[in-house]
Design a protein that fits this description.
The protein is mainly beta and 477 residues long. It has three helices and 36 strands.
């Protein structure tokens, strides 16, 4: 069900970013607040996230329910242009015309009388991530197919099936792109008597070239996976979906999930080339939204990192974000895992950093390979975890085990940091994030030297309107 908006909640500094629906802006030359745009920063930053959390008198039920909007920032010749547009999904257009919430979603049921809800169960909000193909941008949402957009203007073309996806099969918001081969790997989950994991291997243009599937142990949810050398690894959390209240539109998908730690975490390892199952095992219970990166070591084992939570309380915290006031304590930390892919046995599980963190990412050309650095969103040292959003970004160095933190200042909230290579020397580069300033109530693009993250940003750019904190993005050179 929808929830009435909490006006008092808007007092939280970060909540000012979501206090009202975000405003689009056309392709605009960005002005420089400080520093100078590097001449060798050439490419486009794309970011996705929920930009409208209310219509009329009602608020969405969960942060995941907001309509997706894309920010594009194009860098060239020491200048930057940006545009921000809602993805024109069918559900967005219908609700825009009606000026009310109609559809259910991850954390809410459809509006109207119960007998009217069956034809309005959910909409594709296209609000989670993006992937840039040579001729189009895909706005991703894990409950359905992606939407294709123009790379420059962000005009919505429509639903994209990648020349092979069936209309009812979802395409996850966390594809993995191997920069060396150009291959793109992804998955989707469908539900019936059992949960089915669908695996996809595509070429560099996104065209599907191989599919496979596997049955999961229970009706669980998977948000992300990791590419590690020759393997795709899935850690399936001990969540169990009760389908009956969901099918009857009595509960949302989120409210139909139960945490069952006694079931353990199911580990599935697949061969990346033929998508065949290599091993299946069960490990101790934990939950993760996101993986960082993975690789194969000299002994043939796979090493990967993730943000690990002890339970599913993180879902309640994310639900509360939509109201502008959080109270649930849910802290994830960076962990390193070492796994024998042939047996599914874990050889190592270790916490690398005890700071609350999320949104791990690596340089695009190092996905699936041994990478020295992982970039993260983290809580400020003085943050009250259950009341704040991430207030800093950092780089974790696996060689020195050192965390280098960028101090953004109080009441500033960055999005997921992304690495952008130097066009003249791809071994070096920049870290880009979009920052909401809660005191000045504005959004900016901050560019850091990746090797001097604890120094002042190379430049800060003013955006024409507030871009609410979102989820994921990508860099396209």
């Amino acid at each position: 069900m929808t929830t009435t908006i909490d006006k008092q909640a808007k007092q939280a500094s970060w909540a000012k970013a979501i206090a009202k629906p975000a405003s689009e802006f056309p392709l605009t030359q960005l002005s420089t607040i400080s520093g100078q745009i590097p001449e060798n920063l050439k490419g486009s930053l794309y970011r996705n996230g929920p930009a409208r959390l209310e219509r009329g008198e009602f608020h969405v039920g969960h942060w995941f329910d907001g309509d997706g909007a894309i920010l594009a920032v194009h860098f060239a010749e020491g200048q930057a242009r940006a545009t921000y547009r809602y993805v024109q999904t069918a559900g967005y257009l219908e609700e825009e015309k009606a000026n009310k919430l109609i559809y259910g979603n991850y954390g809410m049921t459809a509006t109207g009388a119960w007998w009217q809800r069956f034809s309005k169960s959910s909409k594709n909000v296209a609000n989670t991530s993006v992937i840039a193909l040579p001729d189009k941008l895909l706005a991703l949402w894990e409950g359905g197919l992606p939407h294709a957009l123009d790379l420059e203007t962000l005009e919505t073309f429509g639903i994209e099936n990648l020349e092979g996806l069936e209309n009812r099969l979802p395409y996850s918001a966390h594809p993995k792109h191997d920069a060396n081969t150009g291959e793109i790997f992804n998955f989707g989950i469908s539900y019936g008597k059992n949960a089915i994991l669908h695996l996809y291997r595509s070429d560099r243009n996104g065209k599907l070239i191989r599919k496979n599937q596997a049955t999961l142990a229970g009706l669980s949810m998977i948000h992300d996976f990791v590419l590690a050398g020759d393997y795709l690894i899935f850690c399936v959390p001990p969540l169990r979906l009760n389908p009956f209240p969901l099918l009857l539109n009595l509960k949302s998908y989120s409210d139909s999930l139960a945490w069952k730690p006694e079931e353990g975490t199911e580990i599935l390892v697949f061969d990346r080339h033929n998508l065949e199952l290599v091993s299946r095992s069960v490990a101790e219970p934990w939950f993760q939204w996101h993986f960082g990166n993975g690789y194969s070591d000299r002994d043939g084992n796979v090493v990967f990192d993730l943000i690990r939570y002890p339970n599913f309380a993180t879902n309640q915290y994310l639900k509360e974000i939509a109201s502008g006031k959080t109270k649930t304590h849910a802290q994830g930390t960076l962990w390193k895992m070492r796994l024998n892919p042939k047996t599914g046995e874990f050889l190592e599980m270790s916490e690398l950093c005890d700071r609350g963190a999320e949104f791990p990412s690596v340089a695009p050309d190092q996905v699936g390979q041994n990478s020295r650095y992982t970039y993260l969103s983290i809580h400020r040292p003085d943050a009250v975890i259950n009341q704040e959003l991430f207030g800093a970004i950092a780089r974790y160095d696996y060689q020195t085990n050192k965390l280098t933190e960028a101090n953004l200042g109080k009441n500033r909230y960055p999005m997921e940091p992304l690495f952008a290579p130097d066009s003249s020397n791809p071994d070096t580069g920049y870290v880009i994030t979009v920052v909401f300033d809660g005191d000045r109530e504005c959004s900016e693009v901050w560019v850091f030297d990746s090797d001097r993250l604890d120094s002042e940003p190379v430049c800060r750019l003013a955006l024409p309107s507030i871009v609410p904190m979102g989820f994921h993005g990508t860099w396209r050179s």
